Amino acid sequence: MATSLELLGLLFMVLVNTAATALATRFFRVRLKTGWGSGLYIVLLVPLLLVVLTLAIGSLGVGPNLGSPTAVFGVTVILPMAVGVTFDYFWMPAPDEVDLPEQQRERDSQPRRSR
User: Fold this and answer.
1) What is the reported pTM?
2) DSSP character for 60?
3) Closest Cα partner for 55 from 81, 43, 73, 74?
4) Cα–Cα distance measured from residue 52 to residue 89, given in angstroms and rounded to the nearest whole number
């Protein structure tokens, strides 16, 4: 039976992974100009980020023993990824709908120069 401290550690890990997913999703949606490009990066890079975060936080001894690697992957990667992506796509406004200051719009509309 897991103790309450272990369950709090698991909750902490899930919340950190969910926040990381939401931030990474927003970053890819803002920086990439195509919908499929951001989706591809979200599907390929976010799980890698979440596995690294899970290993880093888990190495601190946080969280209970879930019994199998599949349960760990499901609870610490799949669940936070689903919640974080859903949060960004359905709760946050689309990047095109956000009003930017005039200086930011001018800077974003100019083509980038290579050095």
Assistant:
1) 0.79
2) T
3) 73
4) 24
